[in-house]
Design brief:
By secondary structure, this protein is an all-alpha fold. The two termini are 42 Å apart. 73% of the residues lie in helices and 0% in strands.
Amino acid sequence: MRVPDDVFVQICAEMDAAEQSGELDGLFKGEPRAPDQQTDREQLTRSLRPDVKLYKSTFKKILCYDITTPGFAEDALTRLEILGCSRAREYYKAVRSEWQQEYDTQMKSVAHWYRGQCENEFENMKRKAVRESREDLKKMSNSELLTYLENLIAEA
């Protein structure tokens, strides 16, 4: 969907005003996290202990890390099973299934949008080709047009 020109102009004006006022200064100059504040695979793995409460978010983190590091989920689920969580795989499969369903729905929506974009682009290319061929025909002399028509008839 295209943003209307008046809305786009308003957004640009607001961005210019924010930039001029200094509101955007230092936007990407935040302090980096201290190493002990960073979340990572090892920290998640260390947090899997017998006394830990497991939430849906825990299994979502396991899924995320498994996407970027294949095999992570298997290791984490094995650890949870060793720690006594016999239903860890079941919970993980439910979270993964829910995520996959949501992902598939989003991808179908994106594919539908992209197909529309491709069809619009193709139609625009066809219209451009027709315009260009009309312009070429207008530039031809009568004898060139006659030769062109004879060649078309010969091809058919």
